[in-house]
Design goal:
372 residues, 21 helices, mainly alpha
């Protein structure tokens, strides 16, 4: 009977695992009941659930003739930098850069929204984290889960669980975090500014854009080539008009499969002993600070642009400079409609929103070049 009991997981459950099982159930509840980023939080939550079931051996290393656990091998997709760039390939195939190309100055709003990345990098460095850890924490401000995972696996893989959960959680909470900051930093008159609606972009520009960005990105920030390159390759598939089958595969089967595996792998890193530490709480707090600073940076530059001559700019679209596509753009649109129900900012906000994806990848490449 002792042998049977000791072979059961029930005999080996620790308090840390019980806590993390509750956290996993909370993530699943937020995803299923509240609809917070279900495509991300359901795999992550279920991965965390499995990781905290004793004796599962999911991450076990190979021993002699015995193979390793399932996630010992799936995790290689993170260690070898395979999954995040493939996610970017799918995102590129889904992304319309037309609003950005129609209004190129919104590139600046995507850049301004990186304030949270570098501001939090400095703050984390002062709180006792190493520069490599601080960079991994700071990138949460970009609100880009795959980029956060990519940089963390390069610089601080032991923090992957906390950083990934923080990044994806704040992405899911965009509708709760951003509006108060946007209202605080703008006046009613600024929120009511209407922007000119013209999104016509010649096809040849749409085709040249991903090629040019790939070349320039690789020359300026070589460390970000895999992210920027596959993002732009996916967009080229979309825009060139001769690869419909490949575009559909990237938009559907590829990105769906990689999202499932990536989410499960991230969740499996959330085992109790490694996750329930004081530094995890610090990371969650710093992640919120990073996200708030990024939102503020975009809005403040938007306020400045609203005062400059030229076509009118509503400062709210600056908040969409984070990489949470398209949720941040929808939030900017919704806040504008609270002031003027006939003010349609969604497509205008998509410009800085997709610029933020590029900006966060460049920021990650810059940090990796400095600290890698």
């Amino acid at each position: 009977m002792d042998l049977i009991w000791n072979s059961m997981g029930l005999a080996h459950v620790s308090w840390q695992q019980l806590v993390m099982l509750a956290v996993a159930c909370l993530l699943l509840w937020l995803a299923i009941r509240k609809g917070f980023e279900p495509l991300l939080l359901v795999p992550i939550g279920f991965g965390a659930l499995m990781a905290n079931l004793p004796l599962s051996g999911l991450m076990a290393d190979p021993a002699g003739a015995m193979p390793g656990g399932l996630f010992h091998y799936l995790f290689k997709g993170l260690e070898l930098e395979i999954f995040p760039p493939l996610i970017f390939l799918g995102l590129g195939a889904l992304t319309d850069f037309g609003p950005l190309l129609a209004n190129p100055k919104t590139f600046l709003l995507g850049a301004a929204a990186q304030l949270g990345v570098f501001g939090t990098f400095l703050a984390a460095s002062q709180m006792g984290f190493t520069p490599r850890e601080a960079a991994s924490i700071g990138i949460i401000g970009g609100a880009d889960g795959p980029t956060s995972i990519y940089l963390t696996m390069k610089l601080a893989p032991h923090l992957l669980g906390a950083i990934a959960v923080s990044a994806y959680s704040y992405m899911a909470l965009v509708p709760l975090i951003q509006p108060p900051i946007m209202r605080l930093l703008t006046t009613k008159a600024e929120r009511a500014i209407r922007m000119e609606a013209s999104f016509e972009v010649p096809k040849w520009i749409r085709i040249i854009f991903p090629i040019a960005v790939t070349v320039l990105g690789a020359l300026i920030v070589p460390a970000a080539t895999s992210l920027i390159g596959l993002l732009m390759f996916g967009n080229l598939l979309r825009e060139c008009g001769v690869t419909e089958r490949l575009t559909r595969a990237a938009q559907n089967e590829l990105i769906n499969l990689i999202t499932i595996v990536l989410g499960l792998c991230v969740g499996v890193t959330m085992d109790g002993p490694s996750f329930l530490r004081a530094e995890t709480l610090k990371i969650l707090v710093l992640g919120c600070v990073a996200f708030a600073l990024s939102t503020a940076g975009g809005v403040l530059l938007g306020k400045l642009m609203a005062r400059l001559p030229g076509s009118p700019v509503n400062p709210l679209i600056g908040a969409a400079g984070v990489s949470a596509v398209p949720m941040a753009a929808r939030v900017a649109h919704n806040v504008a409609q609270e002031t003027d129900p006939h003010n349609y900012l969604l497509m205008h906000a998509m410009g800085p929103n997709v610029a933020g994806v590029i900006g966060t990848a460049v920021a990650a490449g810059g940090l990796l070049a400095l600290l890698g």
